[in-house]
Amino acid sequence: MSNNNASNNLIIAQRTVKQLRLEASIRRIKVSQAAAELRNFCLQNASRDPLLVGVPSSDNPFRPPKSCSLF
Amino acid sequence: MGEMEELRKEMENLKDQITAARKTFQDSTLQEAAAGVTVVGRVQLKTRKTLRGHLAKIYAMHWGTDSTLCVSASQDGKLIVWDTITTNKVNAIPLKSSWVMTCAYAPSGNLVACGGLDNMCSIYNLKGKDGNVKVMRELAAHTGYLSCCRFLSDTEIITSSGDCTCVLWDIETGTQKTVFAGHQGDAMSLGVSPDFKFFISGACDFTAKLWDIREAECRQTFGGHESDINAIGFFPNGNAVITGSDDATCKLYDLRADQELLTYQDSSIMCGVTSLAPSKSGRLLLAGHDDFNVNIWDMLKAERVGVLAGHDNRVSCIGVSTDGMACCTGSWDSFLKIWN
Question: What is the pTM of this model?
Answer without folding.
Answer: 0.95
